[in-house]
């Protein structure tokens, strides 16, 4: 007989955790090896138990689920993460996948749908609840369904956004380097990356974009 799949439940509400534990424990395929009440505890549980899958709520105390998700996938990329959330907006779903989620399941699902989600993710495939799939998928050139592309803004790193703001405020590379305690060469590289990602090719174009994003007062 195959080994049971080890599951960590990360859910902020005790009643919800108990319900999930009873549901999973009733199935011979799964074994709940740990439970976490917050994001920090979720990371510790993964570190100590090395589960096959984490069932993760994105709304967690101390460290929110999105941050916990990113850290879990960074440190334990082989661990699969199925997000279980009440949020169905595009932003939440896409952000979860950007941070490494293997599946996204809304909380208002049947037991059958939850087990389908678990099996799909454990089989190495991506899962999206039917109720949200149409919102975040688009048709590719060959008719295949893929996640919507991130906007150019979403692809910028925090450092790039910081530098974009300073460019918009009129600072030169030397001034930016001094303020951020980095080299002028590094600033120039970030500036080049900004131009490439945003498809903008002059300082004035970057300034206009920064103003449009509300980074700089008009």
From TrEMBL:
SUPFAM superfamilies listed in its UniProt record: C-terminal effector domain of the bipartite response regulators, CheY-like
Top-rank taxon: Bacteria
PROSITE patterns: HTH_LUXR_1 (PS00622), HTH_LUXR_2 (PS50043), RESPONSE_REGULATORY (PS50110)
Keywords for the protein's UniProt record, in alphabetical order: DNA-binding, Phosphoprotein, Transcription, Transcription regulation
Membrane spanning residue stretches: none
Signal peptide (UniProt feature, chain positions): none
Residues bearing PTM 4-aspartylphosphate: 57
MF terms (GO), sorted A to Z: DNA binding
InterPro entries (alphabetical): CheY-like_superfamily, NreC/VraR/RcsB-like_REC, Sig_transdc_resp-reg_C-effctor, Sig_transdc_resp-reg_receiver, Tscrpt_reg_LuxR_C, WalR-like
Domain HTH luxR-type: 149-214
SMART domains xrefs: HTH_LUXR, REC
One matching Pfam family: GerE
DNA-binding among keywords: yes
GO terms, biological process: phosphorelay signal transduction system; regulation of DNA-templated transcription
Residue ranges annotated for the Response regulatory domain, each copy included: 6-122
CDD domains: LuxR_C_like, REC_NarL-like
Keyword check for Membrane: no
Protein name stated in the entry: DNA-binding response regulator
Organism: Candidatus Abyssobacteria bacterium SURF_17
